[in-house]
Amino acid sequence: MGSLACMLREAGHNVAGSDKEIFPPMSDVLFNSGIRLDEGYDASAMGAPDLVIIGNAISRGNPQAEHTLNMNLPYCSMPAALWRFFLHDKDVIAVAGTHGKTTTTALLSHILITAGYDPGCFVGGVAKNYSSNYRIGGGKYFVIEADEYDSAFFEKVPKFMSYRPRRLIMTSLEFDHADIYSGLSEIELWFRRLVNIVPSEGYVAYSAQYPLLAEIAAKSFAPVFSFGTDDKADIFCRFVRYNEDNTEFVLSSPETGTLPCSTSLLGGFNLANVAAASSMAVKLGVAADSIVSAISTFEGVKRRQELIFSSPDIKVYEDFAHHPTAIRAVLETMRERYPDSKIYAVYEPRSATSRRSSLQEETTSAFQNADEVYIKSPFNIASVPEAERIDIEYVVGRINAGGTPASLFNNAGAITDALCDEIGRAKKHRVIVIMSNGGFDGIYDEIVKRLEAL
Length: 454
What we know:
Elements: H1 2-10, E1 16-19, H2 26-32, E2 36-39, E3 52-54, H3 63-70, E4 75-77, H4 78-87, E5 91-96, H5 101-114, E6 120-127, E7 132-135, E8 141-145, E9 150-152, E10 155-158, H6 160-163, E11 167-170, H7 184-196, E12 203-207, H8 211-217, E13 224-228, E14 235-243, E15 246-253, E16 257-263, H9 267-283, H10 288-297, E17 306-310, E18 314-319, H11 324-337, E19 342-347, H12 360-364, E20 372-376, H13 392-401, E21 406-409, H14 412-425, E22 430-435, H15 443-453
Parallel strand pairs: 1-2, 3-4, 5-8, 5-11, 6-8, 11-12, 12-13, 13-14, 18-22, 19-20, 19-22, 20-21
Antiparallel strand pairs: 6-7, 9-10, 14-15, 15-16, 17-18
Helix pairs in contact: 5-9, 5-10, 14-15
């Protein structure tokens, strides 16, 4: 919502907004953009706007939502506003999927920028190359991260349905968002509906790793192609080797042949994201040298395998992982990249799904590539219905039973103390991976400070 506000202001509109809590860095970004901020939801502060855009965190009973309805003010959801102001006259490329959306969206945007296409983009994370997660752009393409979460209290459909993509990338499909979906079949239905609105002159790309996506894509009226990390896909990236801090691989497609490439991104998970972005760029006719150059200069996305501390003895990575598949993938990557290092996994269950029991068993097996596991008690567990809550003590017990030492902590400070004490005794190179989709009580900065002192 904050990024949309900045886009609207940049496009010349007069924008004001309200939130329960306003704090940096977004508060500074909004203030510097000339956007008025109101803390709290006082209806009298609204005035008579031409349009009220209501985020999906707002429910009935909110004073400003009630005022909007009672006064018959024009209103819409965030995705509807994106379509109305920025997407309606663009060739929209949507990136959907349980995992990899953010990195794929940011990389494809970077490829198109590098090639001179001047695209617009809207990403669920801050691209390090641009220190921003949006770009209005002046070209024909607009690349958007297409979320399957619902849009607003009055619009209980996935955001991606509002974007009306002409071209679609589907990176993955697993069960998530247990707070609004009852099971995978419900999410699958929406992906089928999404494919069904891609025009016949567009494209649908899907990951060859997910047979269900192949089945969904087969119903497309648009041309379909697959991407992946081996030659089972139409367009693929095949790992060659790690070289210092880079990954060397080859990109193969019928259009480009085999191209040697290098990226700072690590692991098969990210190689699949590179394949996703590159495959769409190939189909759009982007020159091969522009694709290779963009891949090599792409710096990644903040909070996605972001290296936040490095010394000869210790590396600390911050990652957004909260789904068991993502946790497993990032730890597998670290084990492959640092085979002789001791790997510490630090994890906070914070997302709606990770705090529920629906993926509890999968979570217990996601840490097998770590040498030690430090888990914080779930964030705001009281907000989850008691019958649906994850049994975090069971998860920790099962990890221990599998042979990996795991401990449960009530707060981030206790984890920091225990981890720094353990690191002081370690004899070999250490890699710390901190995983949460939220602030984790400031543990990132605190651990870096403590390690700098050590």
